Task: inverse folding
C-alpha cells in the first residue's frame, strides 16, 4: 500500500480530471436526454475543439483561456448546423438512422483530421503550463486546478440555463413530450438543434480548459469516448447530476487504477465499472428508465 | 422471389464466382475477389443481427478480433493446428456474442444502448489485447510461416480463395435459411415491432440471442480467415474501428435485411476503396473518411441501399415519394420485408 503522500496527489488529480470528464459527459447526456440518441461523433467533435484552440494559439497567439470567448460559440454553431443540416434529415423516422449518421460523421471528421494534420501529437506552450498550486500538501498543475473550477462553473451555468430560462423550459418540455411541446408553440426543430449545439458547446469549453495540460491528435477523442459513455451509463442516461457524479467517480477510479495497476491496465477499472453497471443496474445510478 | 428461386440464384452466383481461380491468372485480381468475398462475409454476419434483427452493432470487431486472436494465439502460444483453431475461434466469438447479448437483451436494451455497448466492448477488448502479454500486446502477433494445407497456409492464392468462398457461401446459405424459416419470421417480427411480436408469443430474448450468436460466429470466422491470410495481427487491426465500420457499411450500401445486399455492398465498398487508392493515393485516413461520407450519404439519400434501388427501379417515382415521406418504423419494416427474398 503506497503511503498517503502518493495517494493524496493521485486522488486530487483524479478529481480534477473527473471534472473535465463530467463536462464532456454533460454534453453527451444533454443530447441523449433531449434527442434520445447517443452522439457517436462526440469524441471527434471534442477533437475539433482542441484543434481550434491549438491553432488559435499557434497562429494568432490567443491564450487557450481567452479562446473560451471564441471556441464554444463556434462549436455551438457547428453543432446547430450539423443537427439541422444532417442529423435530422438522416432519420427518416428511425432512431437507428441517426445513430448511423453520427457514427459516419465521426469517421469523416477523425480521418479528415488525420489526413490534414497527420498523426503528430501537438501541445500548446503557455507561461503557466508548468506552474503548480499546493492543495492539501500536494502540488497540482495550475491548468488542472483552473480546469476543475472552470468545469464546475460551466456545469452551474448549464443548470441555471436549464432551470431558470424559457429556453431551458422549452428543452425540458421537448425532452418529455415532443407532440405536446409542438402543440404549445415550441419550434421543435430549432430547440432540438439548440440542444445539440449546447451539448457541443460544452465540448468547446472542455477543449479550452483541457489543452493547457493535455495534447491533441486526430485520435484524441477515442480516449474520451469510452470514458464519457461509461459516465453516462453509470450516472443514468440523460441525468445531469448523474453525469457530474459519474465524472468524478470515473476520474478517481482511473487515477487509482493507474497508481496501483499501471497506466495501460489502469483503464481496466473503468471497463469493470462499465460491465458491472451493465449487468446489475443498466439504468445507471440516477437513471429512471433505459 | 420465391424461396427456391432465390436459393437457385444464390447457388448460381457462387458457382460463377467459383470459376474465378481458373479464369483469373493474375494474383492481383484474385486477391480483389478474395477480399470482396471476405467483405461480403463480414457484412452478411452483421446483416443477420442488424439487417434481420434490427439490432445495430457498432462493435462487430469484438467478434472478428476474438476469432482472429483465438486462431493466432492458440497457434503461436500452444501450437494448436489452425483448422482446429478456426472451429475454436468461431465458437469463442459466438461465446463473446452470447455474453454481450445476454447483458443487453435481458433488460430489453436496444437502439442507442445496444450500439453503445457493442462499441464499448470492442474498445475494451482492444485495450485488453494491448496490455496483456499472450496477444503480443502493442507489438502484435506474427504467425510463423509454415506453408502447407494442413497448416491453413497455401502456396497459391487459390487455396485461400476456396476457404473464403466456402465460409461466405455458408453465411449466405444461413441467411437464406433465416429468410425462409420460422426463426427468421420471428426475428423480423421482433425487428419491426417487438411489443407486437411478444404479444403473439414470440420469445424476443431467445430470438435475438440466436441472431447475435450466429452473427458473432460468422464474424469470428472472418477474423480467423484474416489472421491466416495475412499472418499478422495487432490490437488496432483486430479490435479497431475499421472492421466494425466495414461490417455495417457493407450491408447498408447493399441493402439491410436482404439476402444479396451484402454481396452488392461488398462490391460497392471495394469500388470505393480501390477508387480512392487510384485517385488520391495511399494517404492515411482518406479511405476511411470516404467510408464515413458514404455512410452518411447512404443514410441520408438511400436508406434502403442498392438492393432497394434495384427492387424499386421500375417504379422509381413511387419509391422516391415513399423515401421522401417520413416512414414510421412499421412502414419501413413492411417495405423491407416485401423487398427481401
Result:
Amino acid at each position: 500500500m503506497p503511503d498517503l503522500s502518493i495517494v493524496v496527489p493521485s486522488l486530487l488529480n483524479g478529481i480534477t480530471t473527473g471534472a473535465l470528464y463530467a463536462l464532456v459527459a454533460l454534453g453527451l447526456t444533454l443530447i441523449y436526454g433531449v434527442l434520445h440518441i447517443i452522439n457517436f461523433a462526440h469524441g471527434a467533435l471534442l477533437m475539433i475543439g482542441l484543434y481550434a484552440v491549438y491553432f488559435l494559439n499557434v497562429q494568432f497567439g490567443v491564450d487557450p483561456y481567452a479562446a473560451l470567448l471564441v471556441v464554444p460559440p463556434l462549436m455551438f454553431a457547428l453543432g446547430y448546423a450539423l443537427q439541422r443540416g444532417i442529423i435530422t434529415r438522416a432519420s427518416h423516422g428511425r432512431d437507428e438512422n441517426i445513430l448511423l449518421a453520427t457514427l459516419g460523421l465521426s469517421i469523416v471528421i477523425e480521418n479528415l483530421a488525420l489526413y490534414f494534420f497527420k498523426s503528430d501529437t501537438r501541445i500548446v506552450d503557455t507561461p503557466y503550463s508548468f506552474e503548480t498550486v499546493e492543495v492539501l500538501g500536494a502540488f497540482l498543475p495550475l491548468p488542472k486546478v483552473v480546469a476543475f473550477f472552470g468545469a464546475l462553473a460551466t456545469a452551474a451555468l448549464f443548470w441555471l440555463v436549464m432551470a431558470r430560462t424559457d429556453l431551458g423550459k422549452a428543452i425540458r418540455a421537448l425532452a418529455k413530450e415532443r407532440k405536446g411541446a409542438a402543440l404549445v408553440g415550441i419550434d421543435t426543430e430549432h430547440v432540438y438543434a439548440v440542444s445539440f449545439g449546447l451539448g457541443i458547446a460544452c465540448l468547446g469549453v472542455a477543449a479550452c480548459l483541457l489543452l493547457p495540460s493535455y495534447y491533441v491528435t486526430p485520435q484524441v477523442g477515442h480516449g474520451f469516448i469510452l470514458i464519457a459513455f461509461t459516465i453516462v451509463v453509470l450516472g443514468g442516461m440523460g441525468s445531469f447530476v448523474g453525469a457530474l457524479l459519474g465524472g468524478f467517480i470515473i476520474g478517481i477510479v482511473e487515477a487509482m487504477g493507474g497508481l496501483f495497476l499501471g497506466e495501460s491496465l489502469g483503464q481496466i477499472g473503468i471497463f469493470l465499472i462499465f460491465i458491472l453497471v451493465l449487468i446489475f443496474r443498466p439504468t445507471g445510478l440516477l437513471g429512471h428508465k433505459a | 422471389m420465391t424461396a427456391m428461386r432465390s436459393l437457385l440464384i444464390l447457388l448460381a452466383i457462387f458457382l460463377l464466382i467459383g470459376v474465378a481461380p481458373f479464369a483469373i491468372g493474375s494474383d492481383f485480381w484474385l486477391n480483389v475477389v478474395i477480399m470482396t468475398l471476405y467483405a461480403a462475409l463480414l457484412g452478411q454476419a452483421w446483416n443477420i443481427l442488424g439487417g434481420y434483427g434490427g439490432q445495430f452493432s457498432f462493435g462487430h470487431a469484438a467478434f472478428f478480433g476474438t476469432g482472429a486472436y483465438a486462431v493466432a494465439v492458440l497457434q503461436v502460444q500452444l501450437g494448436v493446428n489452425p483448422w482446429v483453431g478456426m472451429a475454436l475461434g468461431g465458437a469463442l466469438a459466438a461465446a463473446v456474442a452470447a455474453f454481450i447479448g445476454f447483458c443487453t437483451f435481458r433488460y430489453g436494451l436496444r437502439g442507442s444502448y445496444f450500439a453503445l455497448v457493442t462499441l464499448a466492448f470492442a474498445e475494451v477488448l482492444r485495450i485488453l489485447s494491448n496490455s496483456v502479454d499472450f496477444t503480443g500486446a502493442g507489438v502484435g502477433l506474427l504467425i510463423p510461416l509454415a506453408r502447407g494445407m494442413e497448416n491453413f497456409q497455401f502456396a497459391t492464392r487459390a487455396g485461400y480463395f476456396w476457404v473464403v468462398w466456402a465460409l461466405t457461401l455458408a453465411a449466405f446459405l444461413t441467411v437464406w435459411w433465416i429468410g425462409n424459416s420460422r426463426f427468421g419470421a420471428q426475428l423480423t417480427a421482433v425487428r419491426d415491432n417487438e411489443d407486437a411480436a411478444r404479444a403473439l408469443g414470440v420469445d424476443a430474448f431467445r430470438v435475438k440471442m440466436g441472431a447475435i450468436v450466429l452473427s458473432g460466429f460468422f464474424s469470428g470466422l472472418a477474423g480467423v480467415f484474416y489472421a491466416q491470410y495475412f499472418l499478422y495481427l495487432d490490437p488496432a487491426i483486430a479490435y479497431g474501428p475499421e472492421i466494425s465500420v466495414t461490417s455495417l457499411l457493407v450491408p447498408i450500401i447493399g441493402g439491410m435485411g436482404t439476402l444479396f445486399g451484402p454481396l452488392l455492398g461488398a462490391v460497392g465498398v471495394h469500388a470505393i476503396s480501390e477508387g480512392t487508392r487510384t485517385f488520391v493515393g495511399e494517404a492515411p485516413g482518406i479511405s476511411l473518411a470516404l467510408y464515413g461520407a458514404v455512410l452518411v450519404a447512404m443514410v441520408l439519400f438511400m436508406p434502403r441501399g442498392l438492393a432497394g434501388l434495384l427492387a424499386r427501379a421500375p417504379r422509381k417515382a413511387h419509391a422516391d415519394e415513399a423515401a421522401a415521406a417520413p416512414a414510421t418504423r412499421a412502414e419501413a419494416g413492411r417495405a423491407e420485408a416485401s423487398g427481401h427474398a
